[in-house]
UniProtKB/TrEMBL annotation:
InterPro entries: DHS-like_NAD/FAD-binding_dom, NAD-dep_sirtuin_deacylases, Sirtuin, Sirtuin_cat_small_dom_sf, Sirtuin_class_II, Ssirtuin_cat_dom. Binds 1 zinc ion per subunit. NAD(+) binds at residues 31-51, 107-110, 227-229, 253-255, 271. NAD-dependent protein deacetylase which modulates the activities of several enzymes which are inactive in their acetylated form. Pfam families: SIR2. Zn(2+) binds at residues 133, 136, 187, 190. This is NAD-dependent protein deacetylase. The keyword NAD applies.
Length: 279
């Protein structure tokens, strides 16, 4: 049995967060705000600096831009890999173990839900820990690619990381200035372009993954959004779908979202503090 939340909703709809969690079979849709307590910045939070994430068209259309990206990623991915789940991730995993949460659809690529112990996770936008060849579709681990890149770029990371470290973006990119001497490698099977197994802006989420997410929402009793502004349609469509099928929708986010009009309850608060209050 879940406890009563100490947080007051910013608007009262038909169903509250207390209601949906007490009934169970809840699907969580999570965004970047879920991971800010782990030290990963978000793109659109109220206190976030302006960011211009890379587009798919930029990645495939400009060799120099692609090399520059991989240089930053070569530094940034290991910092992402070292990031640990926060209290919100752990609380969500515990709610799954208790049978309250049935699954997680995450827009994040940081793999922190899996690291926290959540088992039924759909990584909507992919994960930072895999790399895909755009020609032959071969998948390799980021660890394996790191070994190849380190071999052809000895000392690169040490040369660009200052005493204060680097700033990491939500897609495992790192803010560094000098990348001119970085060397990229191609697929060792076909010579094709390698790309992180992440859905970039301007790129479509694979249809089977979208279908699996819709099925998860269809099988759930309610949808709870955690830490997402729902600015992009890849997440907003599941909120619209749930509302269309008369499933309760509750949104927990520090600011307003594009999905607020579909919500029965909205809480303007941090994910970790809200989720841990139900343990």
């Amino acid at each position: 049995m879940t406890s009563v939340s100490p947080f007051s909703p910013s608007q009262r709809g038909l169903v509250s967060l207390d209601d949906v969690l007490s009934r169970g079979n809840v699907v969580a849709l999570t965004g970047a705000g879920m991971s800010t307590d782990s030290g990963i910045p978000d793109y659109r939070g109220p206190d976030s600096p302006p960011r211009n994430p890379m587009t798919f068209q930029q990645f495939i259309g400009d060799d120099e831009f692609r090399r520059h990206y991989w240089a930053r990623n070569h530094v940034g991915w290991r910092h992402m890999d070292a990031t640990r789940p926060n209290a919100g991730h752990r609380a969500l995993a515990e709610l799954e173990r208790r049978g309250v949460v049935s699954g997680v659809i995450t827009q994040n690529v940081d793999m922190l839900h899996t690291k926290a112990g959540s088992r039924n996770v759909i990584d909507l936008h992919g994960v930072y820990g895999r790399v895909r060849c755009l020609s032959c579709e071969t998948l390799i681990s980021r660890v394996a690619l790191d070994e190849r890149l380190t071999a052809v770029n000895p000392g690169f990371t040490e040369s660009v990381v200052g005493a204060d470290g680097v700033e990491i973006a939500p897609d495992a990119d790192a803010e560094i200035s000098s990348t001119a001497h970085f060397r990229m490698v191609d697929c060792d099977r076909c010579g094709g372009i390698l790309k992180p197994d992440i859905v970039y802006f301007g790129e479509s989420v694979p249809k089977p993954r979208v279908r699996a997410a819709y099925d998860m929402v269809d099988d759930a009793a309610a949808l709870v959004v955690l830490g997402s502004s729902l600015t992009v349609m890849s997440g907003l469509r599941f909120v619209r779908h749930a509302a269309k099928h008369d499933k309760p929708v509750v949104i927990v986010n520090r600011g307003t979202t594009r999905g607020d009009e579909f919500a029965d309850d909205t809480l303007h608060a941090g994910c970790s503090e809200v989720l841990t209050s139900y343990l």
